[in-house]
Design a protein that fits this description.
single chain, 422 residues, alpha/beta, Nucleotidyltransferase, domain 5, seven-stranded mixed β-sheet, five-stranded mixed β-sheet, 13 helices
Length: 422
């Protein structure tokens, strides 16, 4: 067995280094960044969105929200009392401290001449912005910077007395509501939350989905779901794999299990399988699939990716539900497999021939046994990465590659399904 670098809740198998799985290093500090750097929290979940300047997701039009723990948090102030409060917040939350040049102090991370320019310079490269200034001013400064709801960072503002901490932008997906509560805990103030579901005592589904590691495809369907919850209605939830309902069981008055999405009312679907969905149904993709791959040396990366996509298409499996890629250990350095892991932002797990031999598969091969020392690569690797879950798609071939998919058994001993933060 290779060196084990798996994280809790995942197979403890050799994985590619970060540079080969699409994780992007943090952007280099700009010219105004000071020597005193604020501490930054590390990644908390393997599904977290990559850092600044990461390439777009190659798996399709799915999103997971903007509250990435790999991005820094920034705190700003304009006045001397505000700077003292901002320093206290930055130290407590391990955030960067941005101050006007005239208020320079040893703990400052960066100095600015104009607050608007400082916000614009790093708006999308930080997971949140806490501004000790008037709400009206902050609204005017960030308005030109706004993009997509699913990508905008959290923006929180508060007065220099710290009494009221306002969640101003991206309360759910960006984490501004949670950030406002954290800041208020530091200042002793009151978090000001205005999102309708929070006021109704209902959960923010986009936050629950993000924290569970689920991707989504049609964010336009979410407002009707949230409106139903805010008005005290019940939302049908179709969740054949049990990824979402166990968490939502805490709100039995708000959600009801369903076998299929209704056509005439807002609903939620969490499924790894593709199929027709009513436009009023918000579709989530759970991390349910492991993709096993075998190939000849020097195979064209395009051939491997085309085969993987054909497997998923032919079996109506959602590309965004692929959680792991897997292969035999002697192919760990194969450029085509590394390229696929990087493009799809998925860890590549490897198994020894002995381990592969222990997995039962429907399509063993004597040729593969002679070459590799195991009767199967792609089917066996998929099943091992899936904790011996059943095959969701048996082996298919191209001239120089093979591919199969298995359904991850998250209930097996030693595994942990992604869990909400908190």
């Amino acid at each position: 067995m290779k060196d084990e670098t798996g994280q809790p809740g995942e197979p403890r198998r050799r994985q590619l280094p970060p540079e080969e799985t699409g994780r992007t290093p943090e952007t280099a500090p700009d010219a105004t960044t000071r020597k005193a750097r604020a501490a930054r929290p590390g990644p908390q979940a393997p599904e977290a969105t990559p850092g600044p300047a990461a390439p777009p997701d190659e798996l399709g039009p799915t999103e997971r929200g903007s509250a990435s723990p790999t991005k820094p948090l920034a705190v700003y102030a304009l006045t001397a009392p505000g700077a003292r409060l901002a320093e206290k917040i930055a130290l407590a939350l391990e955030a960067e401290l941005h101050l006007p040049r005239r208020l320079d102090r040893p703990t400052a991370t960066a100095l600015f001449d104009k607050l608007g320019e400082a916000l614009a310079e790093g708006f999308g490269r930080r997971r949140g912005h806490v501004v000790v200034a008037a709400a009206g001013l902050v609204v005017r400064l960030v308005a030109p910077l706004l993009g997509r709801k699913s990508a905008d960072p959290a923006v929180v503002c508060l007065g220099q007395d710290g009494r009221f901490v306002v969640s101003l932008l991206s309360g759910h997906l960006g984490g501004a509501n949670e950030l406002a509560r954290d800041v208020a805990a530091v200042t002793g103030g009151q978090p000001v939350i205005s999102t309708a579901t929070d006021l109704a005592g209902a959960p923010a589904l986009e936050t629950v989905a993000r924290d569970l590691g689920l991707a989504w495809e049609n964010l336009d369907a979410l407002p009707a779901v949230s409106r139903t919850l805010a008005e005290g209605g019940r939302v049908p939830v179709v969740d054949p794999g049990g990824f979402l309902l166990p968490t939502l069981a805490a709100w039995p008055e708000a959600f009801e299990p369903a076998d299929a999405p209704p056509a005439d009312r807002p609903a939620v679907l969490a499924d790894w399988r593709l199929g027709p969905v009513p436009p009023t149904t918000w579709t989530l993709r759970p991390p349910a699939l492991a993709l096993g791959l075998g190939c000849h040396r020097g195979v064209d990366p395009a051939e491997v990716e085309a085969l993987a996509r054909e497997l998923l298409r032919s079996r109506a499996l959602a590309p965004a539900s692929v959680r792991f890629l897997a292969t035999v250990d002697r192919r760990a350095d194969e450029p085509a497999l590394r390229a696929l892991a990087r493009r799809w932002r998925r860890p590549l797990l490897t198994f020894t021939a002995q381990e592969l031999s222990e997995a039962e598969v429907p399509n063993p091969s004597d040729v593969v046994r002679r070459r590799i020392g195991a009767p199967s690569v792609c089917e066996a690797a998929a099943r091992l990465a899936a904790r011996l879950g059943p095959l969701a798609a048996p082996k298919i071939k191209s001239p120089r590659a093979t591919c199969a998919a298995a359904l991850i058994d998250w209930t097996s001993s030693g595994w942990a399904r992604p869990a909400p933060k908190g």
